[in-house]
Amino acid sequence: xxxMRLVLDRLDQGVPTEVGTDRLGELLANRENRLWxxxxxxxxxxxxxxxxxxxxxxxxxxxxxxxxxxPRCDAYSGYYFIVVYAAQQSGDVILPQxxxxxxxxxxxxxxxxxGAAVLTALTEAGRRWEHRQRHQVPGIAGLVYxxxxxxxxxxxxxxxxxxxxxxxxxxxxxxxxxGAAVDLFRLRKELLRVPRLLAPTSHVLAEVLRREGTxxxxxxxxxxxxxxxxxxxxxxxxxTVIIMVPNFVASIYGMNFVHLIPSSESTYGxxxxxxxxxxxxxxxxxxxRMMRWL
Length: 294
Known about the structure:
Blueprint: E1 3-9, E2 17-19, H1 24-28, E3 34-40, H2 44-54, H3 58-64, E4 72-76, E5 79-90, E6 93-104, E7 107-112, H4 116-136, H5 141-175, H6 180-193, H7 195-198, H8 200-210, H9 220-224, H10 227-253, H11 269-290
Parallel strand pairs: 3-7
Antiparallel strand pairs: 1-2, 1-3, 4-5, 5-6, 6-7
Helix pairs in contact: 4-5, 5-6, 6-10, 10-11
């Protein structure tokens, strides 16, 4: 069974206040009210409320009951349906967590499945909206901005963790510690999987900015700053490309084939392979710099 929380904000009141969801229809009818409805683990009752109170499209309501939708921004009559992902680090595994948004003229509906990263982003967005953004920018766009800002902050935290893992693997390789190759393969796998979900978020934000009347002019510079999200994904892609060649060569020699060029028993075979890998890693770095990914 799902849980719902409704927050009401008015210009004539001090801070946003949580109110009963039974007042949703009444409050929604007044365009002066700004409403944030948060739904976790939506079930049939919550979907029925969205259908009857907001009149959301049936195809969209079907999407919110299914996990793992692709990131996107769809325009409907009077509202936008947005799918983005928060990112959580669990040990050495990066866990993307889905967040669905309905963004209307005077309301924001957030739907999720209580992932830790999503809950953290929502809590931080609420705090920032209450103490800062709601006084600077009128309308529900201020809340949406703080939510996107909190999501991107989570991406930066993931980037820092990836950098730390790379530095740890480098140190393990140079010191000859065991398990470096396994850690490298795991990191490569994560960097290939995660950007497919997180990278499109920057395109979703760009699509939001292109929509006429969605974002107030006073808030557009803030949303435009989210272009840094694309930079994060470019860096992760560059790292993936750079480490793929060493992984590929190491995997071939790990298969214990008899006939290899150069042979594993060759006097200068190790030197040749190391030199080749250094050249390829160097080229990957130079190419990434040329593409302005690093």
